[in-house]
Design goal:
Distance between the termini: 34 Å
Largest sheet: 7 strands, mixed
Helix content: under 10%
Shape: globular
Order of helices and strands: EEEEEEEEEHEE
Radius of gyration: 14 Å
Number of strands: 11
Length: 134
């Protein structure tokens, strides 16, 4: 399973660090790319960022480039999303997710081209709320 934490209420320009803890994987945690998504009320789920299995490749939505940083610690089965210079439009429920069964995100080419599609992922956390006040 995946469990997110670290959400909360922050003022515009502030920072938060989200964590995604993985457990129960039959294959090692380092075998899976991990993505972060967010969903605001009335909007579709949006891909925010993804990190490859080793952590050597990362991708970001244009709306968060330069402000968010994704990282992972495979020894601890953890993925992090450092969010700086937060804006009110970042307000959403944030989810971490992975592709357990299809292997789509193993290949570097499909990772780069398909990471932001929610349909690729088949295991999701419960989400953590991030609220940015203006």
């Amino acid at each position: 399973q995946l469990v997110e934490s670290g959400g909360g209420l922050v003022q515009s320009g502030g920072s938060l660090r989200l964590s995604c803890a993985a457990s129960g994987f039959t294959v090692g945690f380092g075998s899976y790319a991990i993505g972060w998504f967010r969903q605001a009320p009335g909007k579709e789920r949006e891909g925010v960022s993804v990190i490859s299995r080793s952590g050597s490749s990362t991708y970001y939505a244009d709306s968060v480039k330069g402000r968010f940083t994704i990282s992972r610690d495979n020894a601890k089965s953890m993925v992090y999303l450092q969010m700086n210079n937060l804006k009110p439009e970042d307000t959403a429920v944030y989810y971490c997710a992975t592709d357990l069964s299809s292997g789509t995100l193993i290949d570097p080419i499909t990772l780069a081209s398909m990471w932001s599609s929610a349909t690729v992922y088949d295991l999701w956390g419960q989400g953590t709320q991030v609220t940015v006040s203006s």
